[in-house]
Amino acid sequence: MADGVYRVTEVIGVSNESWEAAARSAVETAAKTVRDLRIAEVVREDVTIADGRVESYRVRLSISFKYESGD
Fold it and tell me: Is the pTM of this model over 0.90?
């Protein structure tokens, strides 16, 4: 593996469908403004509840991206 410096930041995705859809949404949205995403790790999953039913799925992800070297 080549040398490099990476940053890790957390994002939260929300979906009415599933945790998978929430994670996909978070990664795809982050990719619009952050280049060179490398890894996404699920930190936490939860749901919001309304009237005794699952209303939405939420996923907290730690995502990493590589800093550009400027070379």
Answer: no
**Spatial separation of the C-alpha atoms in residues 38 and 36, rounded to whole Å:** 6
pLDDT at 27: 96
Length of the chain: 71
Fold (CATH) for 6-66: Dodecin subunit-like (3.30.1660)
Q: Which amino acid appears at position 1 of this protein?
A: M
User: How is the beta sheet containing 53-66 ordered, strand by strand?
Assistant: 6-15, 53-66, 37-50
Q: What angle do CA 23, 50, 16 make, to 5 degrees?
A: 25
> Which regions of 1-71 does DSSP assign to beta strands (E)?
6-15, 37-50, 53-66
Q: Are 56 and 68 in contact (CB under 8 A)?
A: no
